[in-house]
Amino acid sequence: MDAAQLAPSAAVDVQALDVDYLALSCHKLLAPYGVGVLYGREHLLAGSLPFLYGGDMIAEGKVAPDQVEYNELPWKYAAGTPNILGVIASAQTLRLVVDLLASGDSPRWFDSPDPLPREPVVQAMGLVARHVAEITSRALRAVQDLPEVTVYGPPLGTPRAPVLAFRVDGADPVDVARRLDDLGVESRAGCHCATLAHRDLGVDPPASCRFSFAMYTSPDDVEQAVDALGTVVRHARRGR
User: pTM to 2 decimals?
Assistant: First the structure.
């Protein structure tokens, strides 16, 4: 499971999902760049070959010209010096999110030496999930009212990730993103690591523009983005 968009906006239980592998990127939850998480069932990780080499992934003294033995989990997949500072900062980021969304009489976990229990994480991420769902629905309703804009993904009222992919008729998605940037709105343009999905949709070139929403996105942000997109639509219409 690719949980890059799911993990920052919901409480994820890998056992309930019954997944073999799950991957996510910590920077989407306010953490620094460069740290990701790969969950895998223990027997699958134990039976697989490492894909990075060096450092602690080799068992101590177990290298010979014709044989090598790998370290125990999780060191088997730790090649060279890890991003130590990034990992520590990412763990503290989750604690900060829990503190920011907790009630006034709740314990504070940021920079605490105590283990972070599951329950406050579930509560905090539940609040995040409700917020981004509301923000995404607000944006989807507004964008659907814009002429000459095609929106991709589940329809309004259906659970969806906090992203909104779209194309403006007659305009290259990269040009749309540039014009939005000129208007003070950040978006992303391209295939979004989903080229085959774009091809399946019959999109040529296989690309779209995308708004992404997070715990810090406000209704005012959505209004600004939609207004800017309306300006881009009008500009594209005049250019045809």
Answer: 0.87
